[in-house]
Hints:
Helix content is 54%, strand content 0%. With 118 residues, it is mainly α. Helix 1 (17-44) runs antiparallel to helix 3 (71-96).
Amino acid sequence: MLARGTTAYAQSPGLTAGDTAILQFLAAGEALEADFYNQYNELGGIQDSEEPGGRGNPIYKERLKRIDPNIPQYIHDITDDETSHQNFINAYLVREFPAILLSAIAEIPVIFIFFVWV
C-alpha cells in the first residue's frame, strides 16, 4: 500500500482560505484554553509577575499539594504556555491578515442560562 503512494507537490506560497479558517479556529481554541488556565491559576496556581491575578484559595491549594506538592507550579507553567500559544497564533494572524479582529471574541455578549429544577 505504501509503495504506491501519490507524490506531493508544494503549493504556491501563501495561505488558502481553508488554512486561514483552521488558524482562526485554533486561535479561538487557544483563547478559550488560555482563559481556562488563567482562571485555574487564579484559584490554585502561583500568582507572580508572569501570571498575575487572583489571590488563590489557600485551602484549595493545600488540598492540591496533598495530591502532588508541585501542582500549583504545574498550573502556573501550563497557564504561561497557553498564553504564549494564544499570543503567537494571534500575532501571526494579525501580521498576515491585519483586517481580522481577534478581539471580536471578547465582544460576544454573555448569555445567562437559568436552570429550573423540576
